[in-house]
Write a structure and sequence with these properties.
The chain is built from 16 helices and no strands. By secondary structure, the protein is mostly helical. The chain has one domain: Growth Hormone, Chain: A. Helix 1 runs antiparallel to helix 8 and helix 2 runs parallel beside helix 7 (about 130-170).
Length: about 425
């Protein structure tokens, strides 16, 4: 019997996703402090964030491919277990650029089986007409975890520095594993048999609507991952321009960015439900267009009143994530079930591959636009770096527009 509404099973999945999300923003929140204590340049700082994203992208395609052949439930649980171990290793052992790069990259790889497999499990359990809602809750739980990660970091950084912040947030995956195991212990997620005449080249690469969604997600992720990686540092710079400095600026910046993630939570919930009623294409297009506009303007707001910066950032946080659950739900509906893991894997490889490059490109443009003066670099110009993310936002608008122009394909039966 397929599920049709929010219930305790979905609540358990979402609670685990919240806990797992605590680890994702730990590095970004501490970045203003790490740049000083680890003596990181913009490129080095972006490399650590990029290493995480690149490893995450590679592991997503590996784990998604495995989920087509063994149960997505098995892959999901084992990945959560590995994430718990790697998160604690990062918290306890990352102490400079090299160790930070190594352990943050390992953490990114271990987390790869916790995202697409979760979508596959939900797609198997819910009817198509409720899938946007269910995936929306799942993505919203990610945003909630990110926001709580920033809140915890904002409190911990002024008290115990990045060490305390890392330790508290990196306990999240352990709690996530326990919650997921309790929720899924009686859930059966069968492996979909593949028919011999179906091939990856025809079912995924030859599926025009699926590929447009995959390209839309790739551009979306370039914008989103770059924004998530650098917005805490940007807000700390804005607060510094307003007179707040050091760990106080980093902590306050993390708390403000937490608000942006809570807006992403609301966007995921509302966009998923709206797409069930109004259609996937319309909701995705509006969200992507607003997000692109925010990317092209947000970085230029440094120095203006904080209320304006926070207002733009709030809209940015809402729109940048609003199309994510809809992109995911739409892909489950236009892809052959036995190739869904492969399609999600390709999407993840391209999307998080782009997301891995984006923080590095952002850092490089940030260094370029803020040249050294007397042997020091003060980061006061952020507009060009955020505008680079806006190019990805425009790409997402293009892909979603082309998707909407394609002939609608009826949803496959539950």
């Amino acid at each position: 019997m397929k599920r049709t509404r929010f219930d305790w099973w979905l609540a358990g999945i979402c609670a685990g996703r919240v806990c797992n999300g605590l680890v994702f923003m730990a590095y970004a929140a501490a970045l203003p402090i790490l740049q000083q204590e680890w003596a990181l340049s913009g490129v080095q700082a972006g490399s650590i964030a990029g290493g995480f994203q690149l490893a995450y992208a590679v592991s997503l395609i590996v784990f998604s491919g495995l989920a087509d052949r063994i149960s997505a439930r098995t892959v999901y649980l084992w990945s959560l277990f590995a994430s718990a171990i790697c998160a604690l290793a990062f918290a306890l052992l990352a102490r400079d650029f090299v160790s930070g790069l190594i352990f943050h990259t390992l953490l990114g790889f271990s987390l790869g089986g916790t995202y697409t497999t979760g979508i596959m499990i939900i797609a198997d359990q819910y009817v198509p007409n409720s899938r946007g809602m269910a995936v929306g809750f799942f993505i919203a739980s990610t945003s909630c975890g990110y926001a709580l990660s920033l809140v915890i970091s904002g409190i911990a950084l002024p008290i115990g520095g990045y060490r305390l912040s890392f330790l508290l947030t990196c306990l999240g995956p352990t709690l996530a594993f326990l919650l997921a195991w309790m929720t899924l212990r009686d859930t059966v997620v069968p492996v979909q048999p593949r028919q011999s005449q179906h091939k990856f080249t025809t079912q995924v690469l030859g599926n025009r609507r699926a590929m447009l969604l995959i390209w839309g997600y790739t551009f979306h992720n370039w914008e989103l991952q770059g924004m998530w990686s650098w917005t805490p540092a940007f807000m700390a710079a804005c607060l510094g321009a307003a007179g707040l400095t050091g760990v106080k600026a980093a902590g306050a910046g993390a708390n403000i960015v937490a608000l942006f993630h809570f807006m992403g939570l609301l966007a995921s919930l509302s966009a998923g439900v709206l797409s069930d009623r109004l259609g996937r294409g319309q909701v995705m297009f509006v969200m992507a267009a607003v997000s692109a506009i925010c990317s092209l303007t947000f970085g230029w707001t440094i120095g203006v009143p904080l209320t304006v910066i926070i207002g733009v950032g709030t809209v940015y946080g809402l729109s940048s994530l609003g199309d994510s659950p809809v992109l995911s739900a739409a892909l489950t509906e236009v892809t052959e079930p036995s190739y869904l893991g492969a399609a999600l894997g390709l999407r993840s490889l391209l999307g998080f591959g782009a997301g891995a490059i984006a923080p590095l490109a952002f850092g490089a443009i940030l260094d370029w636009s803020n040249p050294l003066a007397d042997g020091q670099r003060r980061y006061i110009t952020w507009g060009w770096a955020f505008s680079v993310l806006g190019l990805g936002g425009l790409g997402a608008v293009w892909a979603i527009y082309r998707y909407g122009r394609q002939r609608e394909i009826p949803q496959r039966p539950a």
